[in-house]
Description:
The chain has a single domain (2-102), classed as Arc Repressor Mutant, subunit A, CATH 1.10.10. 59% of the residues lie in helices and 12% in strands. By secondary structure, it is an alpha+beta fold. The chain is globular.
Amino acid sequence: MKDTVENLVLDLLEWLGRRERTYQNTMEAWRTSCPRLPIWEDASDRGLVEVNTVDGGRSVVRVAPAGLALLKERRPQAYEEFERQRTRNITRGITAGDVMAKGIIAGRDPDL
């Protein structure tokens, strides 16, 4: 079961890495009442994700530095894609808030 939870935690980090998500959106997608699959709780307790308040008091969930390190170690392709997109956004002057508001990520569906 531990491998299942770990893989789902990595899936959560990849999902968050595609674009910023609101706390509400993240909870709707990842919170569970099943004690055997505590994906959000495990990621949060391990410091892999962080919740920040941005423009207008909106809470967003981001991959924390520890989560990026885990992605780099366990899923290097996902980490590299995340870094490429982040670099493109910085180069184009797109802020994290723009990504959140407009769903800008390499032509991907923002809800994936």
